[in-house]
Design brief:
By secondary structure, the protein is of the alpha/beta class. Strands 11-10-12-13-21-20-19-16-17 form a 9-stranded mixed sheet, sandwiched between helices. A 7-stranded parallel sheet has the order 5-2-6-1-7-8-9, with helices on both faces. It is an enzyme of class 6 (ligase).
Length: about 550
């Protein structure tokens, strides 16, 4: 196994995840099999209990792992299926070591950071790197490891030491270190400054790791003089200094690395040039250029709770992008804070209220994504009501589906106090209830998580047609509450159809309103399996409906074209 380690310096948020994913894309295009590992130095066992405002979205894997959003980038870029073990956290490592200590596995030894924690990290990396994630048998050729945070952070020190030991044990021909750093330009001087990167590399080398390549983030392309200066002070060959400057869209990043022969520098360091072929990135080139040249756009109202940080809905945004490109459209997402639509805001902040409603009315479609807690729920219900009554295409995901059900119960079935037990435990009409198997005392990993099967109850529904009339679909879930099965017959009698259910038939998965052009709610998260060039069926349906292409698309599918 050969390892490519990606570290970051100077500041966080440089795009290490996109850089690591792009490196994987270029190596995969060279005919090599690639897997990925993300190391997060925080003490949380996983990302499941972290606020979206704090850390962006929680990405869910097939096996139910709640992981860092960078693993979503890996899956989308490399088209692989990762496992929960591909995300290593300090919490997981310490938990495994302490469990061994309690069992007596260390035979009375004093348990220390070195060697016990560092050995646990190395063993975890080597075992996970050997797990195939591309559907083929046998381990991958190269494992790309991204170390979260910034070099010098206290919490990442054990990982740095473990990776230093790993680089020594596997040998220099099997280990390549790429350091991502910032080259700022001071407004007054206008000169590209290398000093922050020099200090970052010096700190990395003091910890026992020497970078083989530098990936320099900058607003504009690096000057040759800047590269020469970096080479002199950072002990890295000029040809191994890659410039990852700002680009129109992230699909250009693999092309940027390829054009600078970044793949060759990595292959030479790993002594596997003879095993590789020239990188075939025609599909990526076409995709990047197609997006750059799109003229027409579609306005999408995204009504959510966490719009202060767009990374909170990263997979939703990517899924919309994939669907829009398939329809030859550029996504224009209008972010609406759900609470701004509520009547209370009309009194406290009338301008925000008026602007939110104007934005909603100007959108071609409405999307209500997942979330937890009661803040903004009434605004989401108003958005669902607007979309239903005005025949505006609507997609509700997870909480968005539950919103659909609550709104319909109140407005159509006249159950005025209908609600979710999550928001109102005393509601006389709990149309959404807590799942029987859930835990009310522990938050982490106690939801219904991971890939679950949904069986279509009929092929005569828009969702089934979008999924090519398959009898079932496997999608990823993350929820504690569900539609109350005691109310399903009443909803269906009122023309709100549950066209998808789980294998027991008692858990509602997909809801549709047949009298509406596109009014769909799903309990699962279709965004997690959307891929460039292979968009999620439901996101595609939403955009097709918003642009007036849905019926033609369905007819074409039904005719087998």
């Amino acid at each position: 196994m050969k390892y490519v380690l990606v570290t970051g310096g100077v500041v966080s948020g440089l795009g290490k995840g996109v850089t690591a994913s792009s490196i994987g894309v270029v190596l995969k295009a060279c005919g090599l099999r690639v897997t990925s590992i993300k190391i997060d130095p925080y003490l949380n066992t996983d990302a499941g209990t972290m606020s979206p405002f704090e850390h962006g979205e929680v990405f869910v894997l097939d096996d139910g792992g709640e992981v860092d959003l960078d693993l979503g980038n890996y899956e989308r870029f490399l088209d692989v299926r990762l496992t929960r073990d591909n995300n290593i956290t300090t919490g997981k490592i310490y938990q495994s070591v302490l469990e061994k200590e309690r069992r007596g596995d260390y035979l009375g030894k004093t348990v220390q950071v070195v060697p016990h924690i560092t050995d646990a990290i190395k063993n975890w990396i080597e075992s996970v790197a050997a797990i195939p994630v591309d559907g083929k048998e046998g381990p991958a050729d190269i494992c790309v490891i991204e170390l979260g945070g910034t070099v010098g952070d206290i919490e990442s020190m054990p990982f740095i030491e473990a990776l230093r030991q790993l680089s020594f044990s596997v040998g220099q021909d099997n280990f390549c270190l790429i350091h991502v750093s910032l080259i700022p330009v001071l407004g007054v001087v206008g000169e590209q400054k290398t000093k922050p990167t020099q200090h970052s590399v010096r700190e990395l080398r003091a910890l026992g790791l020497t970078p083989h390549l530098l990936a320099c983030r900058s607003a504009q392309p690096l000057l040759d003089a800047t590269k020469v200066k970096l080479s002199q002070f950072c002990h890295v060959a000029v040809d191994n200094i890659l410039n990852v400057h700002d680009v129109p869209n992230i699909w250009h990043v693999p092309l940027l690395l390829r054009n600078q022969n970044g793949h060759l520098a990595i292959l030479k360091q790993l002594d596997c040039v003879s095993n590789a072929i020239p990188p075939n990135l025609e599909e990526w080139t076409t995709r990047a250029e197609t997006f750059d040249n799109l003229k027409n756009s579609v306005r999408i109202a995204l009504v959510g709770k966490y719009i202060g940080l767009t990374d909170s809905y990263l997979s939703v945004v990517k899924a919309l992008l994939h669907a829009c490109i398939a329809c030859s459209l550029k996504p224009s997402i209008d972010w609406i804070a759900a609470s701004d639509l509520e009547d209370a805001t009309a009194n406290s902040a009338p301008e925000s209220h008026a602007a939110a409603w104007e934005t909603l009315r100007n959108a071609a479609c409405v999307l209500v994504p997942g979330g937890f807690g009661d803040r903004g729920v009434e605004g989401m219900i108003l958005a669902a009501n607007y979309a239903r009554e005005n025949h505006v295409p609507y997609l509700g995901i997870c909480l968005g589906m539950q919103i659909t059900v609550i709104e319909y119960a109140r407005s159509v079935m006249r159950l005025e106090r209908a609600n979710s037990a999550e928001f109102d435990p005393d509601t006389p009409n709990p149309v959404i209830v807590f799942m029987p198997e859930g835990s009310r005392t522990h938050m982490g990993s106690t939801m219904r998580l991971g890939s679950r099967r949904t069986l279509f109850q009929t092929t005569d529904c828009i969702t089934s047609k979008l999924y090519h009339n398959y009898s079932y679909v496997d999608e990823r879930h993350r929820h504690r509450y569900e539609v109350n099965p005691e109310y399903t017959d009443k909803f269906e009698a009122a023309d709100l159809k549950f066209v998808g259910r789980d294998e027991s038939g008692k858990r509602m998965e997909i809801v549709e309103l047949p009298s509406h052009p596109f009014y769909v709610g799903v309990q699962f998260h279709p965004e997690f399996k959307s891929r460039p060039g292979r968009p999620s069926a439901l996101f595609l349906g939403l955009i097709l409906a918003a642009s007036g292409q849905l019926q033609a698309y369905v007819d074409k599918q039904q005719n087998g074209n």
